[in-house]
Amino acid sequence: MARDQADLPEREAMEFDVVIVGAGPAGLAAAIRIKQLAAEAERDVSVVVLEKGSEVGAHIFSGAVIDPIGLNRLIPDWRERGAPLTTEVKQDKFLVLGPAGDITLPNFLMPPLMNNHGNYVGSLGSLVRWLGEQAAELGVEVYPGFAAAEVLYDENSAVVGVATGDMGVGRDGEPKDSFTRGMELRGKYTLFAEGARGSLTKTLIKAFDLAKGREPQKYGIGLKELWEVAPEQHKPGLVQHTFGWPLDSKTGGGSFLYHYGNNLVSVGFVIHLNYKNPYLSPYDEFQRFKTHPAIRDVFKGGRRIAYGARALTEGGWQSIPKLTFPGGAILGCSAGFMNVPRIKGSHNAILSGIHAADAVFAALGEERAYDTLDEYEIAVLGGDIARDLKRVRNVKPLWSRFGTYAGVAIGGIEMWIRTLLFGWSPLGTLRHGKADHETLARASNSKPIAYPKPDGVLTFDKLTNVSFSATDHEEDQPVHLELADPSIPVEVNLPKYAEPAQRYCPAGVYEIVRNDAGEARFQINAQNCVHCKTCDIKDPAQNITWVTPEGGGGPNYAEM
User: Fold this and answer.
1) I need a labelling partner for 233 at 20 to 30 A (CA). Which of 52, 343, 422, 498 fits?
2) Tens-digit pLDDT profile for residues 320-330
């Protein structure tokens, strides 16, 4: 039985002006901007950034084609400073895939905002590591390997900081010989930049009712492999997207294929998590996609060097929660700033960090603390982030409502109308409807999907690929995938939905195991978890809660 909190030693506390949770594009941009402003004003502002990954960038996962608008504002001379973005986009290709063939869509049909020229192909993880270096040079304290596990409140329910998780706790919840109590990091303002479906952000949205009056947040799962391809297959600066096969027209999603660097190709697949068929496996759809005649030749003579998966926000403008609360704010993909048709969010994440920093610095200059940063929300909802998201706000609901072919066509036409009519559209703002966990059909009404066996050359099984994510967790620690009711997977989800967790998880975390008598048991292989958060989103009973494991655990993405 786990020891009561009252029996544990008191946590040590550290005081800062600003505490930032998450060393991603948004969190580091906020930290850098605050320090830039402080230097200009010759003021001392203490800033700390907590990162649950073992190092800055370890948990960063993206395509990535990067729009430099945010970076240009944050560090205008980033090129001269050696930022690891050197491959400019040279060619855009859009393909519609069928079972055996493909159609190339002419670029002139695509709305102007879909043009990637002027953007860069690269590793967002590498860029974030570089941003971490810039932050450290400015005096930001960056603590990788420290997972923020608890929000701290004062007597007035204002956020006053966070506490990191205890280290050295056994699976039974009891402290081991290596036990170390977590620390409290307290700040006048606390900024949450945890990425999509942030665990603490989720609790804040509930505690302050920040989603009131908004559409439910929508999500996708993105799966990606990084390949080193044969030189003759490499086309630096090529950005290719597809939709269609292997998905049916009612299931939203598509692929990306980005060429950059030294014979590197990022290949990935995104599936919208409002899919209906409980037998669908996003991971296996990704593997099957690579076998298409228009795709497979890219990988001849190449080798896969990394794998990962991550949920991404797709709700857009309609689903942005209230961004502020007493004592802090929500930044980046935690708030849902991704542009769905462009599959881009890092530029808006950086912009949100800049806006948050401006608001925090102004508040500190007025000797304020623990209040609501209304200036931040005003800047986001009236600036470039809003303009970027408003003009594509109906793409996702149209896709969901009319399916891939009709939905994408109508969405494209609407984007053209908004372009030509300065943002106006006769459709107004469409609603998303159901949350993603509410969309599964019963297994009895669904068709099982037979996926081909991996060949080990082009396609791979889950566990083999997980080994290419460098995922590592201390095995003797509490399971960080918590079940509200342990009976639900076998007694409810299995008969109703054939227990979809064993398929939607891209890392083989969840299994239905049967004994000799045929009795089913739900098994959680938490050590495999790549922190994608899909289970927290898609579980139809909302019975699974993802909480932070020990700091430093999880994937260690190289160049992802």
Assistant:
1) 343
2) 999 999 999 99
